Amino acid sequence: MTHTLNLHAGPFEMIRSGRKTIELRLFDEKRSQIAVGDTLVFTHSDNAAETLTARVTALHRFPDFAALYAALPLDKCGYLPEELSTASPEDMNVYYSAEKQALYGVVGIEIALLKEENQ
Fold it and tell me: Are 20 and 78 in contact (CB under 8 A)?
């Protein structure tokens, strides 16, 4: 199955470069449909014609981002080496409220980049 997800410029470029191999999301109705082996098409939020295609290699489910941050390598989740010492699960509250995390849980979607399209 193929799923489309939008990404801001920073995470999009990190996935393109291979530095970011785990995408963090709420495990809501849309993301609960994603399975290992599925294809993800990431669309650049500023330019919908720019996409990246990846295969899902693993799903890491947690009750909230605090548990995820304690378990997963944050350098693979989009943090730069100089940001690791100050990385915090609260960083994700900008995108997903504590209430939504409690309701759905969260997921680290591990990916392998397949190809680049429409760059």
Answer: yes
